[in-house]
Amino acid sequence: MTVKLSVCIICKNEQKNIERCLKSVAWADEVVILDSGSSDDTLAIARRYTDKIYCRDDWEGFGVQRQRAQALASNDWILAVDCDEEVSSQLAQEIAGALSEADEHTVFMLNRLTNFCGQFIYHSGWHPDFVHRIYNKKHYGYNSKTVHEAVSCGGARKVKLRHTLAHYQFDDLYLYTNKRNSYAETGATEKLSMGKKSSLSKAVTSSLFAFIRHYFLKRGFLDGKIGFIIAVIQMQYTFNKYVFLLNKQASKSKGKIEKH
Questions:
Q1: How far apart are CA 92 and CA 154, in angstroms?
Q2: Entry pTM
Q3: CB 116 within 8 A of CB 226
Q4: Any bridge partners for residue 159, and if so which?
Q5: Is 77 exposed, middle or buried (0-12, 13-18, 19+ CB in 10 A)?
Q6: Could you say which of 118, 146, 151, 167 has the lowest number of CB atoms within 10 Å?
Q7: Radius of gyration of the chain from its Cα atoms, rounded to whole angstroms
Q8: pLDDT exceeds cutoff 60 at 260
């Protein structure tokens, strides 16, 4: 059975990565790109590979943007990829074979292998890294989380594919740490909206455990100096998230007092 597949990509200012990604999914029946306001050459590059290019710059988070991209797809089967990811020819063949035998209630998981600062990371809690990426939109789709969004697929038959999805995350530590700070801020806002609480002691203990988890329990030491750097960055991210939440709690309480 021939199954048509739509690749959905969300992007903003990804001129450095998007061409590699688009070349790797050129075999798909359709490639849908939803941009959120690029000011570089991202869209000029994208036009070489697809005419299904759209823009929504009223940003409501990663989850909502992925939902929007999915809604623009012509086919029911969706493969969600990021601009910094690359689908190998082996994985493409495996996907085609798997889809030919799949039913609508199957969700396929891809194992991401991340290249960070020029090195593939096989430990540190980064690998294996199975993510739900291929699904039938008649039954499943992304949740609305602002960050760390995922496919909601309760009750689905989940199948892990064998070949890895290359993920070229960052080769610039400055940009990466800035992005993690941004995620910490978003995560803190999300926790505040859920009524979560923080304290300085929670920030300290959680960040220390984050280092222990990534460097020792997840064997980050086997990734060499990059493994140590990853553990420290994760520790800093965790500390910032809880401190940002603590600060937001204080601001919220101050606002309530001032109203009275």
A1: 25
A2: 0.86
A3: yes
A4: 108
A5: buried
A6: 118
A7: 20
A8: no
As a whole number of angstroms, the distance between CA 102 and CA 108 comes to 9
Top CATH class of 5-170 equals alpha beta
Which pLDDT band, with edges at 50, 70 and 90, does 253 fall under?
confident
Contact 239, 206 (CB under 8 A): yes
DSSP state of 216: I
Task: State how far the Cα of 5 lies from the Cα of 95, in Å rounded to an integer.
Answer: 10
Find, among 179, 140, 142, the residue nearest to 13 by Cα.
179
For residues 42 and 11, what is the distance between their CA atoms, to the nearest angstrom?
Answer: 8
More confident residue, 252 or 67: 67
Contact indicator for 80, 8 with CB cutoff of 8 Å: yes
Helix (H, G, I), strand (E, B) or coil at 194: coil
- Enclosing H/E stretch for 12: none
Tell me 258's DSSP state.
H
Q: Is 182 helix (H, G, I), strand (E, B) or coil?
A: helix
Cβ atoms 75, 10 nearer than 8 A: no
Q: pLDDT per residue over 118-168, tens digit each? A: 999 999 999 999 999 999 999 999 999 988 899 999 999 999 999 999 999
